[in-house]
Please model this.
Amino acid sequence: MEEVKLVINFLMTHKVVLSALLIVLVLMLRRVALSRIRGDVAFISEHQRKWMSRTKNGTFAIIVITLFILWQSEISEFALSLTAIAVAIVVASKEIILCFTGSIQRASARSFRIGDWIEVGKVCGEVIEHNMMATVIQEIDLHHGQYHFTGKTVTLPNSMFFTYPVKNLNFMKRYVYHSFSITVRDFVNLFLIVPEMIEQIEGHCEEFIDVARRYNSVIEKHAGVDLPGSEPHVHISTTPTGEQLVHVMLFCPTEMATHLEQRIREDFMQIYHETFTDNKLDTSMPAVPYM
Model:
């Protein structure tokens, strides 16, 4: 009993050690609870997501309340003595504080790490450095359907993480869902050429399709959602002005996406020409697709 009292007195005297022990204990309990909630299922249900979120928020609240109670006297003394100075510091260094807290938010949420592809606002790139004030990325041209580096280095202040959502695109470094559309001016039955188009696309994807299926399964298991799959998809729609759109989506290696798109466009032009122009379905004006 005497030893227990000594331990308690030691912990109450050294509050830093007690705080660290409490945080470790709560985090361990949270990890066990999250593991039990998730189980061994591949896809997380909405019910599981709710309970996982409640568990994370509840443990965070417990840590904050416990630390506040433990350090209440010190916080009160510190707040009273530095209130006026703190107000002046906050007003004068608002942006610096936002950058600092943005770094804490990034680290606590584990949004990304060095080497990941991220998108913040309209900027996409690979993270090459991050510190307490800023994050440095090598820009990648994703918004134009390209996946190459532009050669530009972008420095993002960490305060941006409170303004814009951070999208982690790390899985796109190896394989990507690449989508593009082909516009056809004349109204013909494009569904006639869809089977041949899919056959041609599958031929182009034959060399990597097995690896793509395995990688797609890895992404599904990690994300806990059902993705479109690794097979190529072709569907047809129309624009408000009456043109037809041939939409193509394929799961392919990132470095091959642009090259495959050009080959598929070439195949479409050839199949379209052989099916419709050579058969003289429209003798007055050759039906030529444009992209």
The mean pLDDT is 83. The domain at 174-277 is CATH 3.30.70 (Alpha-Beta Plaits).
